[in-house]
Amino acid sequence: MEEYICPHCQNPIYDDDALLCHFCGESLHRPGKGFLSNIKYSEHRVIWFFLLFFALLGFILVRIF
Ligand SMILES: [Zn+2]
């Protein structure tokens, strides 16, 4: 657990996964943590993209043969 100070109301947030401030409801702009979760999020998107791509590829191959 790491203390994070809300840039809007200056209250400390102790929830590492919180994206919104508990006090004022504004989104937290986390430079370090946010970057890491962005990587995780984009990796998740890439996996879905590849699944969709191969599904489409399979569909095209089935139609050709
Ligand atoms: Zn706040």
Rg from alpha-carbon coordinates: 20 Å
Q: Sheet with the most strands?
A: 2 strands, antiparallel
Biggest sheet, strands in spatial order? Answer: 1-2
Count of separate DSSP helical elements = 1
Write structural notes for this entry.
By secondary structure, this protein is mostly helical. It folds into two domains: 1-30; 31-65. Helix content is 51%, strand content 6%. The chain has one helix at residues 32-64, and strands at 4-5, 12-13. It has a two-stranded antiparallel ribbon with strand order 1-2. Strand 1 and strand 2 form a beta hairpin. The N and C termini lie far apart (56 Å). The relative contact order is 0.11. The mean pLDDT is 81. The chain binds zinc ion. Zinc ion binds at residues 6, 8-9, 11, 21, 23-24, 26.
Supply database-style keywords:
rod-shaped; mainly alpha; binds zinc ion; 2 strands; two-stranded antiparallel sheet; 1 helix; 6% strand; 2 domains; 65 residues
Task: Please provide a brief summary of the model.
The chain is mainly alpha-helical and 65 residues long.
Give the helices and strands, then pairings.
Layout lengths: L3 E2 L6 E2 L18 H33 L1
Antiparallel strand pairs: 1-2
